[in-house]
Specification:
150 residues, alpha/beta, Arc Repressor Mutant, subunit A, 2 domains, 4 strands, 39% helix, 13% strand
C-alpha cells in the first residue's frame, strides 16, 4: 500500500483503505530523499501515523519489516516536468533501479529471476509511464521527479 500526502494538503488524519485501521494504528515507512524526510516526518506525525522506518528508495523500503504502508512525497510539476500519469509498480521500481546501475536486460533478468522478455516489457512500461524515449531518459526522468535516487 502506498500513501501520498501532498505538500500543500492540510494536516488531517489519514485513513487506510481498510477502515478497521485508523491513523494511530497505521505504521509507515517514509520513502524519500533524505532532504525531504523531515517534512514527511512532520506531516506523518500531524496525521497521527506511526513512522517505523525511513528509506531512500522503494527497494530499500521493501527490506523493512513491520510497516503497513509506504509514505512518499506527492509528485508535483516542477520546471515543466509532469508527474507520471500512472505510478510505477514495485517490480518496475526494481527494474528501474537496475537500469540506473547500467545493467543490460539479461543481467536484470538474472538478478530478478525473470525472463529477459519480461524485463523488456517492464522497460517499455516504465518508459511509457515516464514519457521517456529510451532507458537512459527513463532513469533521468525518474531521478528528476524524485522516483529514483542515485
Amino acid at each position: 500500500m502506498l500513501a501520498r500526502i501532498p505538500d500543500d494538503a492540510p494536516a488531517a488524519r489519514t485513513r487506510a483503505p481498510d477502515e478497521s485501521l485508523d491513523g494511530a494504528d497505521l505504521r509507515v515507512v517514509l520513502v524519500a530523499p533524505a532532504a525531504r524526510r523531515p517534512h514527511l516526518r512532520r506531516r506523518a506525525a500531524a496525521a497521527g501515523l506511526q513512522v517505523v522506518g525511513e528509506a531512500a528508495s522503494p527497494a530499500e523500503a521493501r527490506t523493512m519489516a513491520g510497516a503497513d504502508a509506504w509514505l512518499l512525497p506527492a509528485e508535483r510539476s516542477e520546471a515543466g516536468v509532469e508527474p507520471a500519469a500512472e505510478p510505477l509498480t514495485p517490480r518496475e521500481h526494481d527494474v528501474l533501479e537496475l537500469l540506473a546501475e547500467g545493467l543490460p536486460n539479461k543481467a536484470i533478468a538474472r538478478r530478478l529471476g525473470i525472463s529477459d522478455q519480461t524485463v523488456k516489457f517492464h522497460v517499455a512500461s516504465i518508459s511509457g509511464k515516464l514519457g521517456a524515449r529510451n532507458r537512459t531518459a527513463a532513469v533521468r526522468k525518474a531521478v528528476s521527479r524524485g522516483i529514483l535516487t542515485l
